[in-house]
Amino acid sequence: MAGSLFFRAAIAAAIVLGLSATNAAALEKREAEAVVTILERLSSETRKTVFYDEDAAQEWFEIDDESSQLIPAAGFSETSWKAAFDQTMTGFIASIPQAELEQMMEEFADKLGELGKMTPEQKKAATEMLRAQMGNFEAIREKGAPYRNVVAPYSDRLKRLSKSE
User: Fold this and answer.
1) Angle of CA points 106, 112, 117, to nearest 5°
2) What was the pLDDT predicted at 26?
3) Which DSSP helix (H) or strand (E) runs through 13?
4) Dist. CA 20–CA 109, nearest whole Å
5) CA 14 from chain center: how many Å?
6) What is the DSSP string of 105-164?
7) Nearest to 32, CA basis, from 136, 144, 165, 107
8) What is the pLDDT of residues 84-124, one digit of tens each?
9) Using one digit for the tens of pLDDT, what is the confidence trace for 21-80?
10) For residue 117, which phi and psi values (nearest 5 degrees)?
């Protein structure tokens, strides 16, 4: 009896998890597309580069709140926007091959040095600091792994948004 009850509970849990995973995947794809489209428009309006950190979703939400109101028009609340933004951006970072990510970091360090008019010593220190931060990227990539395939169709668009001019 206990085995039968356990078996039925396990089947019910598997069905619930399967249904939620199926619904989440379909929803995540629409959300990812909406996030990318909104970011393209806001980035174009503000000339800001899209990046990922813990505060980026909130910053874009506030920018949108003061201008276009695209985020609520797409059906996002502040909380759902943060979740969709974070999943999209971490999925994007997870989709970038390691060698390409390292090259992007090198290019970013070079541009940082040029923009900041750094001395060679300062540029070297900034580059070393960025390399040390690569460990953080591994954690972000791990966090984004479940979303990598959903975000992959938008990676070229996200690459354009994440390149600083």
Assistant:
1) 130
2) 41
3) helix 2-46
4) 41
5) 29
6) HHHHHHHHHHHTT--HHHHHHHHHHHHHHHHHHHHHHHHHGGGHHHHGGGHHHHHHHHS-
7) 144
8) 999 999 999 999 998 888 787 777 767 766 766 778 888 77
9) 333 444 489 999 999 999 999 999 999 999 898 899 999 999 999 999 999 999 999 999
10) 50, 50
Tokens representing residue 69 in the block: 């109101």
| 73-80 long-range Cβ contacts below 8 angstroms, 24+ apart | 74/34, 74/37, 74/38, 75/34, 76/34
CA distance 132 to 148: 24
Rg (CA), the chain: 20
Pick the more confident residue, 155 or 7.
Answer: 155
Q: How far apart are CA 23 and CA 155, in angstroms?
A: 22
Q: What are phi and psi of 62, to 5 degrees?
A: -70, -40
